[in-house]
Task: inverse folding
């Protein structure tokens, strides 16, 4: 049976239009998903929108729309973003869907049945934007630590989930599984917080109408944060066959929601007896050192960038420039430098140069036995591929991409060393040189395909070869199996 792999982005909160941060999370997740497919995994990749809650209700009212219409429209924008960025998700889930209402109700009932839910009164500071209750000490000058905005004080009847009951076992599991939360800094933070007294979690809202009714007390809705997390089970048709095949997940999320995805989500899963998923945390993108924030007018539109520089250039840049798991800075100058230097000069020119030489050559494109193996482009290739795979396994996406780029640079150096434009047009050495370069390009197309899928497709088209898998990353016995024909430039310089 094909090995299964489930990866998810967080579901986005459609209270406003997307920004570059949303694009970044989707691109990172897509790169990992595509890489897994290259390894031969059957990948389930979910993304979507988190549609309920007070904040949405208010935003819809402000826009003069019904919440339903409002979330549909904004979710359409997120789908469009995925199309533009070439995100290969297999499921786009909206929490307003019937399938999700069913799963959420089912899980909450299960929690109740397990004796993990009781009724009480909640009182405390609440940030509408986070949809989160805080304790006094979380606040900074009485304001929400995330939004720097005044919190509301709420007192209401509520159902609580016995999160404290699972505190110790979760902490133990995280301790025993160093990879469960990545990177290590986030793991440590969560462990430290789990060592402090933990309050039970209020899981219902009396005054929020826009949500999923609490199955055992329908005048209330399920707290949006709790219900949203359950989308990861909905997307696998929990508890059906797909769930049994694909769980546990890898959740790719931002630093602001690690607590929800570990302490809260893990407790719920422990209660209903489901294996804990891996949580992988990416950093934030800053603009000249400042956090992207609509409120402060610091915004970058990924669709505009993609139009201006090409989707692949944007994807390449974000992965290459920002060490995965850390915060990074965005600037158009840096993007242009990588586009004009690495993409146009290193890769684009290599392809064009090789295919121009192919047109000049008049013989068989095949290796010659006397050419020394050390000089050839497949020399030590196996070890290089192992190293790239290692980097991908360790989620060092930027390092993996850098090593792939070394292969591109080696091919350029090889061309300059062999000076094939000086060969006679029937010289077998010419054929050997082209064989090396075409095979290298074919392998480069495979390796860059998770990062730049359109570019890989275009390289294959011009080489006249089929898209390959990781196992195809070795030189095949000659002659070159393809019908190379020069096509369009892969990339265009932007001044
Ligand atoms: Zn807040």
Result:
């Amino acid at each position: 049976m094909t090995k299964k792999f489930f990866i998810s982005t967080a579901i986005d909160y459609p209270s406003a239009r997307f920004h570059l941060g949303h694009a970044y999370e989707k691109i990172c997740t897509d790169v990992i998903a595509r890489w897994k497919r290259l390894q031969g995994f059957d990948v389930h990749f979910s993304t979507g929108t988190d549609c309920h809650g007070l904040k949405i209700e208010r935003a819809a009212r402000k826009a003069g729309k019904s919440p339903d219409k409002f979330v549909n429209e904004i979710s359409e924008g997120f789908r469009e973003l995925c199309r533009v960025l070439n995100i290969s998700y297999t499921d786009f889930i909206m929490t307003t869907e019937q399938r999700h209402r069913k799963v959420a109700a089912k899980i909450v009932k299960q929690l109740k049945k397990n004796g993990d839910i009781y009724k009480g009164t909640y009182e405390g500071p609440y940030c509408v934007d986070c949809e989160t209750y805080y304790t006094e000490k979380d606040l900074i000058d009485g304001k929400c630590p995330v939004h720097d905005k005044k919190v509301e004080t709420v007192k209401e009847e509520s159902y609580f989930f016995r999160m404290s009951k699972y505190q110790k076992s979760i902490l133990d599991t995280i301790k025993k599984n160093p990879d469960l939360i990545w990177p290590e800094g986030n793991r440590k933070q969560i462990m430290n917080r789990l060592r402090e007294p933990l309050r039970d979690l209020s899981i219902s809202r009396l005054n929020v109408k826009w949500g999923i009714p609490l199955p055992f007390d329908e005048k209330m809705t399920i707290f949006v944060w709790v219900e949203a997390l359950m989308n990861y089970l909905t997307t696998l048709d929990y508890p059906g066959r797909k769930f049994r095949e694909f769980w546990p997940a890898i959740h790719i999320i931002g630093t602001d929601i690690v607590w929800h995805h570990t302490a809260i989500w893990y407790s719920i899963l422990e209660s209903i007896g489901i294996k804990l998923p891996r949580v992988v945390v990416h950093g934030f993108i800053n603009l000249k050192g400042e956090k992207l924030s609509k409120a402060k007018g610091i915004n970058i539109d990924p669709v505009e960038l993609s139009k201006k520089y090409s989707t692949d250039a944007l994807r390449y840049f974000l992965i290459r420039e920002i060490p995965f798991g850390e915060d990074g800075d965005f600037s158009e100058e840096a993007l242009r430098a990588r586009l004009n230097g690495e993409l146009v000069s290193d890769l684009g020119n290599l392809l064009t140069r090789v295919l121009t030489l192919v047109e000049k050559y008049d013989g068989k494109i095949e290796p010659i036995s006397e050419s020394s193996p050390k000089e050839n482009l497949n020399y030590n290739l196996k070890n290089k591929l192992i190293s790239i795979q290692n980097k991908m396994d360790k989620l060092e996406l930027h390092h993996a991409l850098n090593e792939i780029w070394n292969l591109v640079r080696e091919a350029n150096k090889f061309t300059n060393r062999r000076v094939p434009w000086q060969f006679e047009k029937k010289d077998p050495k010419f054929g050997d040189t082209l064989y090396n370069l075409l095979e290298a390009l074919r392998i480069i197309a495979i390796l860059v395909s998770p990062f730049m899928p359109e570019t890989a497709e275009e390289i294959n088209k011009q080489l006249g070869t089929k898209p390959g898998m990781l196992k195809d990353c070795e030189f095949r016995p000659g002659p070159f199996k393809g019908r190379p024909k020069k096509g369009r430039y892969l990339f265009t310089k932007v001044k």
